[in-house]
Amino acid sequence: MKNSESFSKIAMMSPGFDFYKILDNGSSAFTQEFLDGLFGDRETHLNSINHPETAILASKNEGKEIPEMFICCGQEDELVYDNDVDFINILKENNIPVEFIEESGGHDVLFWDKMMDNMFSFLAK
């Protein structure tokens, strides 16, 4: 949310919001050492403005305007689907509007291709 005043909208396709949770769910895409090298360690990252949940909630608490968000994810996306649904629930619990589309599909270009029209329609509104 750094520089959120510069953007009116954010569009994300199958994003990973919390890589440590993705690791906890058994993904072999990352290792603990890799993530610690990027973020410091889990606790440091969770309390950092670089953690999406922390950043958005801090912006909301500071009264900053949060850009409109579009997020889509395939329901068979084993890498990030659960993580994305958790993030959507956090947004909803905090009354932060989001357009979320979940449909059949994986973490692949076939799913993203069928979401292009939805994403560009959102951005054009």
Please, could you describe this protein's structure?
- The structure is a single chain.
- With 125 residues, the protein is α/β, with parallel strands linked by helices.
- The chain is built from 6 helices and 3 strands.
- It has helices at residues 19-24, 32-39, 42-46, 52-61, 81-93, 109-124, and strands at 9-13, 68-74, 99-103.
- The protein starts with 8 loop residues before the first strand and ends with a helix.
- The model has no long low-confidence stretch (mean pLDDT 92).
Q: What structural class should be given to the helix and strand makeup?
A: alpha/beta
Sketch the major β-sheet. Answer: 3 strands, parallel
Largest sheet strand order: 1-2-3
Strand residue content: 5-15%
Quantity of strands, as a count? 3
Oligomerization state: single chain
How far apart are the first and last residues' alpha carbons, in Å? 21 Å
Question: Which helices and strands appear, and what pairs or packs with what?
Answer:
Elements lengths: L8 E5 L5 H6 L7 H8 L2 H5 L5 H10 L6 E7 L6 H13 L5 E5 L5 H16 L1
Parallel strand pairs: 1-2, 2-3
